[in-house]
# Entry
Amino acid sequence: MATLFTRIIKGEIPSYKCAENDEFYAFLDINPIAKGHTLVVPKREEDYFFNLSDEEIARMQVFAKRVAVAIQKAFPCRKVAQAVIGLEVNHAHIHLVPINQEGELFSGKHVELTTEQMEAIAKAIADEYNTNNA
# Structure
């Protein structure tokens, strides 16, 4: 049975795609901590992030870095935090969250955004990603 993220990657479940290459897919978290909160996932199903090969992790980090640069340009912030938590969905993933102060990432607060806002956020990140990685 395919994971939720695999179904998103295949287009079976809609998502707000921000970036994609042959190996990885980046899309907005539907329960974001901040505007621009993005998930980066490998297209290959793997339950546990640290079960990925060293080479896959390295390539995923480079992809995530490029997405983080796009997030920061689209939504100016002090930094883009990265977290690998991995229990809520059985598919390895990285959270990228724009932050302006310490403690924002794990405050337990989430923002509510409309479909239109999510589409605009995904487009802003995708535009920055495509501009810098063409």
